[in-house]
User: Fold MFS transporter from Pseudomonas tensinigenes.
Amino acid sequence: MQRTLITIGRRQVIGFCLALTAFELLTYMASDLVMPAMLDVTTELQADIRHVPNAFNLYLLGGICLQWLMGPLSDRWGRRRLLLIGCAIFGVACSAAFAAHSIEAFNLLRLLQGMGLGFVISVSYPALQEVFCEADAVRLMALLGNVALLSPLLGPLLGSLLLQWLNWRELFLALGLVAAMVWLGLYAWMPETVGVIRRDGQHQAPIPFSLKRTRQRYLALLGNRRFFGASLALGLMSLPLIAWIGLSPILLIQLLGQTPLEYGLWQMPIFSAVIVGNLILNRLLVTHALPELIRIGLWPLCMGLVALLGCALLAAGPVPVVASLALYGVGLGICNATLYRLALFCTEDSKGLVSAMIGMISIAVMGLGASLIAAIGGGTRLDFFALLSALGGLTCLPLLHGFLHDAKAASTKAQ
Assistant:
């Protein structure tokens, strides 16, 4: 691939960020927008209610199916080409859900739609990190996190309102049409970051693709204790939130008898809190190092999870549970983008492959963890959900302690 000088003007930067934001929002909206209708989906397709969380977890697992391949291929063929392919696959899978006539076909399409999430993580995130410097990249990751959180924040509420006029099939068709428009935006504005020289002189050279070499690089990453611990911690840290997204339709609508609109309103305090955490992160980035930001974020995160344990012991109702999740969400908003950046750069390997590995590990932890919580009764009672989610989230603490201790030791040695 020819090495050229990358010149990204202000207009292209804005267009690229907007197109990337739209694609990320769309990949999350494909899940959250239809969550209020999932009981209708299972009824129409004559399926068991257990498919409500299963469909969500399949979407998450779809995000890791091809990440192992997407990252290395984007290192070889370029980020832009791979992301356009991913957006096209996502749009076709959404449109095809309009014609699904069995729960098996629906779940397969959920898996394919989830692959769009994999392209976001393993292809677009490295491109973002390569275009911008460290501070700007962390800010943009946090802001992208805010936009992505608009989906679980507004998705259930918007889905409840749209279901007054549309059915779930028409919702998926609309998502497919929007994906086509996003594809055009990416085609017009996304720059290529592989095989080009940046204005600051840095260069991400194309890396020849080899299955054997790729396997060796992945095994080397798994042997990197700091990297593996940070990736596991990313998944465990987000597990309570993911479990809530998957099980809250059953807990609130099926068990507590709330309407889909009320269900949507209950999401707002939790995801607003995560956005507040991201905004706090944006302010603190100027004066604090990244490991210090994680230590700050762990205070509200741990307090929220401990409060969630208290809700489980006292068999509390939805108000204390949602309040505890909101407090936890503030800490998650501070820690998530920060830990991702530290994990991405604790190894010298190419960022496409590293980002893919982070995504595979963290999403697998979230998807399998949420499935386990659902399987052992997290969707049968609110206090069971609170107990299992809190315990799952708190397991990230030993991993974070080890990661931060190693980071401090490495920093001291470098000085």
